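Long-time lurker, finally posting.

We've been working with Protein O-glucosyltransferase 3 (Chelonoidis abingdonii) and I want a structural starting point before designing mutants. I don't trust myself to interpret raw outputs, so I'm hoping someone here can both generate the C-alpha cells and explain anything notable. Sequence follows.
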Amino acid sequence: QFGTLIFYIVYFVKEVELYFETPVSAEKSLVWGPGLVAELTLPVRYFYIQAVSAAGQNFTRSPPGTVHFKVGIKALSPKEVIGIHIPNLMDRNDGSFLIQYRMYGSVNKGLKIEVLYGNEHVAQSPYILKGPVYHEYCECPEEDSQTWQNILSCPSQEPQVTKDFSSFPIINLQQMLHEVPARFGQTGGAIVHYTVLNNHIYRRSLGKYTDFKMFSDEMLLSLARKVHLPDVEFYLNVGDWPMEHRTANHTPGPIPIISWCGSVDSRDVVLPTYDITHSTLETLRGVTNDLLSIQGNTGPFWHNKTERAFFRGRDSREERLQLVQLSKENPELLDAGITGYFFFRDKEKELGKAQLMGFFDFFKYKYQVNVDGTVAAYRFPYLMLGDSLVLKQTSQYYEHFYSGLKPWKHYVPIKRSLDDLLEKIKWAKVSVVTNKVKRALNVTCIFQKYAKHQASQPEIRDGMELVPQPDDNTSICNCHRKKPLREDL
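Top reply, 14 upvotes:
Generated this for you. Predicted structure of Protein O-glucosyltransferase 3:
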C-alpha cells in the first residue's frame, strides 16, 4: 500500500560493500567546514573529511586497512602557546569523518591545521587560518553585523522565520510593555523581558517559573561576544507551551512572544530550543550529547542493528503509556519503556519502570519512535542526526526546523493515536526512508529581523539588571578587531 512512495525509498538488501583493494587518495579526498574559517568563532570549531578513492569515487563506508586520517592543529607562531583540545576523529560510517577542536585561548598570528592520510597531506592541507583566531569566551565582537551575516550566510528567506514574523509587520514596544506583564507575567508565568542595548544584555523576570533564563542568558552572552547585536527589546517564554493564541483577526492582535516551541494554533516566534543551544555551547565540556557527537556515535551498521522500534522517556503524555502497552503485547516489533513517572504515577506498577540508557545506545535499534512530551519532544533533532529510521507522531507542536522536513522523505509519520504504529514498523522492515535534513538556524538573523520590525527604540526598563559576561581568567583574550569608522567620530 506504500508503493507510491518508492521515489523516497531505498531498499537495504545488499551486503557490506567490498573495498578490499580500493585505495584512498589523499589528494582527491575532500576537507571542508566552518572550523577552517578564522573569522567564525564557535564554541567548538569543526570540519569534515570525505574519503575519496583514486578513481574519484566517494567512499560510502569506512575505508579499510590500517592507514587512518590524522589531524594536527597548532598556533602559527611558536611564541603563542595555547591549549587546544582535539578529540579523536569521529567516523560517521558513511565514508566521512568529523573533526572537532576547542580552543582554550586565542592566537593573534593564526592557526595551522594539518590533515594527513598516513604521511600524505589531504586535499589542500596544511590549512592556514590567518589570525586573530578567538576562543569561545573571548569578548571581541565583530562590529559590522553584516560581516557576521555574510560568514554565516543568513538566508534571504527562512520559511519558519518568514512565517513567524508575518503576523508582526510592526512591533509596538510600548504596547508590549503594558500588555505582556498583564497577560503573561502573573505569579505562575515564565516570561523573561530582555533588552539588548549597545551589545549589553539586560533582563527582568516576569513570573515565578523563569529559572531556565540561565540558558537564554548563556545564548545571548555568547552571541554578544562574537558579534555586535542589534538593539532589541523582546519577551522570551522559557516555559514549555507556546503562549500567544490570538490571530490577526483579534482586536488587539497578537504580540511576538519568543518561544522554544510553536504550535499550529499559536503565533509565537520560534527559536532553537534551550537544549540545542546549551549542548552546542558546552560541546566537549559539560555535556555528552550534542548535535556533533551524535554524528560519530550512530551505533552499528544498519544490517547489525536490532530489528525493532525503540523508545525511552518520561510519562509526560498518555500516548507514551499506550506505547509501553503496545510493546508488552508486541515485543518482537517494539521495545518501549518509561524511565520516570510524574504525571501517571498510578501506572508504574502496571507498566513497570525501564532503566535509563545512554542516548548513543538508542542507535543500536533500526527504528526510533518519537512521541510528544508535554510539547514537542526535544530529542527529535538528535534522532534525526542518527542513522536509524524515525517514526514520528503527528503533532500540533513544532520546533524551529520542522518547516524543512517532509513526511515520508525525512521520517515516517504515525497517527497521533498510534493506531498505525505497528503497521508502519512492519512496513519499515522491508523499506527505509533515508534522506535526512541537518539544518541550523542562525539566531542572530532572527534578532536582526526582529530589530527591523520594532517601531521604537529599545530601552532599559525599571527592574532590569545587567547580565554580566562570565569571567574566564584561564584563557588569554586580546581583542585585535578593527572597529569600523563611524560618521559621528
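Before you design anything, note these points.
Residues 213-226 form the longest helix (14 residues).
The radius of gyration is 25 Å.
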